[in-house]
Amino acid sequence: MTAINTDKPVGESAGRKQMPWERYVQGHHWRNAEDEFDAAKFGMWLFLSTEILLFAGIFVGYAIMRMLHPQAFSNGSHYLDVRWGGLNTVVLLISSWTVAMAVRAAQLNQQKWLRVNLIITLICAIAFFSIKLGLEYIPKWSVGKRPGALFNYPFASDPYEPMWWSIYYTATGIHALHVLVGAGLLTWVLVRSFKGIYGPKNYAMVETSGLYWHLVDLIWIFLFPLLYLIH
Amino acid sequence: MTTMDRPIPADPSDAHHDAPYNASRGSLAADVLNWATTVDHKKIGVMYLFAVLFMFFLGGMAALAVRLELLEPVRTTVNAAGQTVITGQLFGADPENIQAGNQTYNRLFTLHGAIMVFMFIVPSIPASLGNFFLPIMIGAKDVAFPKLNLLSWYIYVIGSIFGVLSIIGGGVDTGWTFYTPYSTTTDADHWRVVFMVLAAFILGFSSILTGLNFIVTVHKLRAPGMGWFDMPLFIWGLYATSIIQVLATPVIGITLLLLVFERIFHVGIFDPGLGGDPVLYQHFFWFYSHPVVYVMILPGMGIVSELIAVHSRKHIFGYKAIAFSSLGIAGVSFLVWGHHMFTAMGTLASTLFSALTFLVAIPTAIKVFNWIATLYKGSIAINTPMLYAMAFLFLFSIGGLTGLPLGALATDLHLHDTYYVVAHFHYVMMGGTVIAFMGGLHHWWPKMFGRMYNEKWGMIGCAIVFIGFNITFISQFLLGMNGMPRRYASYVDEFQMLHQISTFGSWVLLVGFLIHLFNFIYSLIAGPKAPPNPWGGLTLEWETESPPIEHNFHHEPLIKHGPYDFELVVPPHCDAREFPLPVPAPPKPGPEVIK
């Protein structure tokens, strides 16, 4: 992999047609493209802070309910299979790495690697979601390990185990929703990358979607120990 | 102020960019399409303005209905024929069932609260006047993310539709706070409560997007030469507001989502029967909803800073103190939510929250004293915006000071959940925010629509609103101190006089607002054309035309003086209303100054 020197106008000197990203100009209300790029990133960081605070509500709920019903939460974490949680953690960490590589590829105008990295990230997203749904949600739900009033698992040893499942499904469910949103964003980026829209002059969308994907990863990094590892 | 000679590259296809932003595009269909798909912050601000004013009208109607119901206490009597008769119930009255009428009353005050809080007062100033003037006042062409801005308006409309659907379906009787277990058990088989909660959830996103947009705009799009402390104080108010919107709104998002899960899936997090904790809901709710009280008031404070400086032609006193006190209020706002649940916490926590609550008074008082100091020796113009600014000082001070007895543990025990609380927060929300909003609307109306309103009728309207407001709510202070609890459709006979005074006041208020409404309609139809700078303001919005052109300025503005430098910029014996300002004459070679 050799980096292309982006100081020179790529393509034009080689007699090729200009790629769409080379023709990119900032929105009419911006003084220059750097300001626009900084603003896009800043805006995304602010949005991520709102996401953190949204999940903070769930984490506080977890803490309070764990304090009220420690035995139910201890039982609950034993019901979860740490191997599937661990595998999903690995899957998400790999996807975080590939999405970072996708941003790098866009910065360096490596169009092929941009797409390859995005596709690997999306495969990871699908893998995460399949493991979550097929190996965790469905088997548990079908034996009655359900949230709140829907709970009808006959072998529960603590009366407050439904509360554990409420927290479990709420936390991982909202997280899974974020996985879907993130995957949707990255799919959009992938589709547009085939048109050559992203390159050294225009990669704000790749970068901000990547940031969002890192957030999805980060939330899971906290959910995994809280739900699977602490007994 | 001079503008820099940096012409915007000419684009023949953009001929309309030098036309007023609200110029017609030919046909009605073209105009509707143009407004519906616009990313121009001015048009979005105007669309927000009419949307929130409509919601203000709906919420106001509900308030009038509530007051009308309270004109007479609900009584069950046996008449001469031996029949049981229910008197004093106006809405939903059912001779067989006294509860039905009381239910209707519960729905009415919930309707009033939910509409006024979520659909009117939170978006009122930031989304309408803020959207219109924030970019212009910092010399930008638009907000940082114009498409997101339009999206936020549509999200607001969708959220409001959810709310209206819930109302059409019969309304909710939970109170605007959706406290559990009211919100999880009433109308358990019905979707109305879920719709109203979802409405608040969706409206939160619109609030977040506006706040996020403003923060990035203030950071990245200030005109060349405009430092942080060259910004008008309205921008500081909006900036502090936006910080709260971005940091607090997600918490109400998850809270309302959990409430929806609670109702649909019975997850039990707020249900003690399943091991949950209903007070946890209140903690979550007020962690958002107390900071959001400052979302409501901070932009109003920003407006008042503008009004007082411009209409007394004087440099604002203590610029930095006002700017930092906005941030101070935003910071403290996150630490006081517990004062809504004094009875549900231990002594230590209650004492701490009580002390933190008192802290809010410090930055607030700093602002009030600075405004009064600005007026001192100013060249005060008596017009509608200035009258509203003074009404704000008076009413908001009452609202703020009456909050302290509620923050003190001993007195709160007596006053909580009484009409005293109702009167207190109406003095802050209506006497503060709505009064400032009305002042700002009159102040910027000529700029927004290019036409003047009638000054005499504006001042009469303001005076009537002021009198009506005080009649309505001073009586409620007295009711509360005498022990009238809030949220009841009936009361003991001793309270009837004060209730009737309060209801009478609500009609006076209605008259005042109707005068303003007709004044604005008159202005749009037949008002005299507004000059670019009718008040002699020095902030950037007065440098462009009235109404502003599509790109806000013909040239990118360059900041040469501060927003309130009246003494430095306006030559003696000149009026800042002249635009462009005459160049100050060079000092005459005259006789030696006697030392």
Produce a short descriptive summary.
Chain A has helices at residues 33-68, 70-79, 82-107, 111-142, 161-193, 204-229.
Write structural notes for this entry.
The complex is a heterodimer of chains A (231) and B (595). By secondary structure, chain A is mostly helical. Chain A has helices at residues 33-68, 70-79, 82-107, 111-142, 161-193, 204-229. Chain A has one domain: Four Helix Bundle (Hemerythrin (Met), subunit A). Chain B is mainly α and 595 residues long. Chain B has a domain at 35-410 and 424-440: Cytochrome C Oxidase, Chain A, CATH 1.20.210.10. Chain B is 62% helix and 3% strand. The longest helix of chain B has 40 residues, at 98-137. Chains A and B meet through helix 1 and helix 5 of A and helix 6 and helix 7 of B.
What is the general shape of chain B?
globular
At the first level of CATH, the class of chain A is: Mainly Alpha
Relative strand content of chain A: under 5%
CATH superfamily of chain A: Cytochrome c oxidase, subunit III, four-helix bundle
> Percent helix among the residues of chain A?
over 70%
**Low-pLDDT stretches of chain B:** 1-8
Structural class of chain A: mainly alpha
For the structure shown, list the relevant keywords.
heterodimer; A: 231 residues; mainly alpha; Four Helix Bundle (Hemerythrin (Met), subunit A); 6 helices; 0% strand; elongated; disordered N terminus; B: 595 residues; Cytochrome C Oxidase, Chain A; two-stranded antiparallel sheet; 16 helices; 62% helix; globular
